[in-house]
Amino acid sequence: MNDKLQKRMEDAISSIFEWPSKVINLFHHNDTDGLTSGAILKRSFERKGYIVRNIALEKPYPALLNKIFEMKNQIIVFADFAGRIAPIISQLNNSRNLVVILDHHEAEPSLDKNVINCDPELFGLKGDRDITASTTCYLFSTLMDHKNIDLVQIAAIGAVGDEFFVNGEVYGENLKIVEDAVDQGLIKIDPGKKEGERYIFITNRGELTGKWIEDYLDTLGGVGFYQNGPNMGIKVCLDGFSEDSDRMVADLKAIKDKRFNHEIERLKNGEILKTKNIQWFHVEDRFKPMGVKMIGVFCDAIKKMDFISSDKYIAGFQIIPNEVPGFGKIDINQVKISMRVPPPMEEEIRSSRRMGLNRLLPEATEKLGGFSDACHSLTAATTIDVGKEKQLIEEMEAILQATN
Ligand SMILES: [Mn+2]
Fold first, then answer.
1. Model pTM score
2. pLDDT of 62-113, one tens digit each?
3. Which of 204, 295, 301, 315 could connect to 280 by a Cys-Cys bridge, CB 3.0–4.6 Å?
4. Would 312 be classed as within a structural domain?
5. Reduced to 3 states, what is the DSSP secondary structure of residue 329?
6. CA–CA separation, 157 vs 212, rounded Å?
7. What CATH number is given to the structural domain containing 148?
């Protein structure tokens, strides 16, 4: 591993061991990478005698961060997010708690000695190629205690699940840990296959592909976000598949199909609004009780359907509930927008004939004081205040028309 990253992690570990509290407040993302990260950290800290309070978050919204940093004298760990907002966290923390960030997204250095940012992006690794949060957390846990190498298969599930492949294979640090899992007899590789199908995990349920496990965990974490799905996902990572987890996944998939089909009917019946370059719709709270990741999944699901115009960007809005499991009521008062493009436009964006979503959406969002997070050229999502939806569409049209 990178020496400087290792040193940073070792500093973080000794700071935790020296801190007077024996409780870890663990906040982790709710996708496959985030759940596997959470599972690895939960087990590793529990082995050291800590009480772990883990809470899955879809995003570290500002209102949530304010609430979290009402704490003092605590140990707080963030996994699979927060690398980029280390400066904001530093300000909010003001040295009162010990904070460790184990992320792999774009990163900024911390400004507080008690906020230790172990994001590998700060050390020259690429989070969208070399290393997932699960691998970052696994390396951290093996530095904490070498015997945690038995958690390598969980790390590999995250490494395959985040879908950063080079020529159909995982790469860099992710590749090293997958090879370790192969050596331990926990993964087999099917050389005839690519990407998520290539890695076969040996589980209590027999041999399962990475893709299959990813779908299972994403369903628990994303569809089941408001129904204790993330904790079931962590339990699956640590203890294996069970009848309970299977039943939960089946129930959640049924909810998802029902909500999606209902919405597709509405859109087919004309509930889709069109401007010059954008086709958009609002699901309000009709996706309840699913998490807000589902608006992006839904945009993906419909982007090839025949009621979709092939030459307009696709935008869907979903209201973010004012509650977060583990926190109770919290005034977020925001709406999420997810964007995709129909397949014919993908090539136009790749060849720069049309503007990528990574520019269009964040620029418009910023004008309205919203919160941009993960924006790529073909998939993007941000959040804005409830009530500004139409304005956001107009801002995007203005940006597009100004550049034409
Ligand atoms: Mn990740």
1. 0.94
2. 899 999 999 999 999 999 999 989 999 999 999 999 999 999 998 999 999 9
3. 315
4. yes
5. strand
6. 10
7. 3.90.1640.30
Q: Are residues 13 and 138 in the same domain?
A: yes
Under DSSP, the state recorded for 322 is: S
Alpha carbon of 29 to ligand 1 centroid (Å): 8
Helices (H), 290-384: 294-302, 343-350, 357-367
Q: How far apart are CA 170 and CA 176, in angstroms?
A: 9
Q: How far is the CA of 404 from the centre of ligand 1 (A)?
A: 35
Residue 286: C-alpha distances to residues 260, 262, 334 (Å): 10, 9, 15
In a domain, 116, yes or no: yes
Using the mean position of ligand 1's atoms as its centre, give its distance from the Cα of residue 104 in Å. 7
For the chain, report the end-to-end CA distance as a whole number of angstroms: 47
Q: Tell me which residues have their CB within 5 A of the ion that is ligand 1.
A: 33, 80, 133, 162
Q: How far, in Å, is the centroid of ligand 1 from the Cα of 86?
A: 17
340 assigned to some structural domain: yes
State how many domains the chain has: 2
Domain final position from 109, 132, 152:
152
Range of the domain at 299: 263-402
